[in-house]
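Re: the multi-chain job from yesterday

Posting the exact lines I submitted so nobody has to dig through the queue logs.
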Amino acid sequence: MALPPELALATKNLGKIQEILAICSEWPVKWLTADGVDWPDIEETGDTYRDNALLKAHGVARVLGVPAVADDSGIEVDALGGGPGVRSARFAGEHATDRENLSLLLARVADVDEGERTARYRCVAACAWPDGRAVVAEAACEGRIILQPRGDGGFGYDPAFVPEGETRTMAQLSEGEKNAISHRGKALRALGELLRKDGD
Ligand code: IMP
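And the result, structure tokens for all chains:
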């Protein structure tokens, strides 16, 4: 399969675009991104991260006629039975903002003891080709939820997520520090290895 010379980035989420381009900055590919251009809208109707990552990657690859990379990700809070999980982007409603989703999450864990507020981010990264082939990689980042959000970096639930082994929240880490330990960083690096290996 090999790393294609041109790859479309199948997301319109600016936070994700920025992170993925930084994580994959060493990949010798030309990226096509949704920055200010007409871009296919793919509905995330799957029940799993894997289904949604493949839906997005296949959808964009088919429409644009070039291989596409997508990620699907979410936060899983143990005290919420693993939720919001695959529904993380729509936790507070179909068009909810990051701030609304974060507020709802904090309200739901407000009465949970600190030691019980364990959580993880999970990410499935997929690369799909217009002819239907695909490669998939998955990773997680363990941590816990704090009730007083801190930091301006990252996006989504980052101000309330403290990764394992850290005292700072994900939103207080530099971009490089986040990408070194994050679910997205690990999943995309694994995807890159699979793509390079397949090309041997
Ligand atoms: P989706 O992958 O487009 O379905 O969106 C995943 C959602 O999970 C995002 O909108 C965020 O709410 C949350 N999420 C995923 N990764 C991160 C992250 O790195 N930081 C904070 N929130 C995240």
